[in-house]
Design a protein that fits this description.
126 residues; alpha+beta; 2 domains; 7 helices
Length: 126
């Protein structure tokens, strides 16, 4: 075999390996990324909060999103009103996208999108 042909075979095998790993990751995720994006689509804002505050929100009756437990490492994602999250002094806003800040957080508080939209439309205009 010529060196060029051997190189092309190695490159093709590398592409097949990468593609098979990609398919394996999708198959094992079982729709987790879709469910996470769906939760984020329903949220108007996201905040990083301490774990004790997240547990307090859950004991108050706010909903914990099950998709957070499917992530590795698992995250505590809580849906709460913006008025309640405003009472948490250590809440830090993060961008609403699947980026490093959001994925690095261990506890997230999300506000419902409808609430954010209502606040924007009901504000007085100058």
């Amino acid at each position: 075999m010529s060196p060029t042909f051997e190189r092309r075979i190695r490159e093709q095998r590398a592409r097949v390996l990468v593609r098979s790993l990609d398919y394996r990751q999708r198959r094992h995720a079982s729709g987790m990324w879709f469910r996470l994006r769906r939760v984020l689509a329903d949220a108007g804002a996201a905040y990083v909060i301490p774990e004790d505050e997240a547990r307090t929100l859950i004991t108050e009756g706010h909903r914990a999103e099950p998709v957070g437990q499917e992530l590795e490492p698992s995250k505590l994602i809580v849906m709460a009103s913006s008025a309640r999250i405003a009472q948490i002094a250590s809440a830090q806003p993060v961008p609403m996208r699947l980026g490093g800040e959001l994925l690095a957080a261990t506890c997230l508080a999300l506000t419902p999108f409808e609430e954010t939209a209502k606040a924007a439309t009901s504000s007085p205009r100058a």
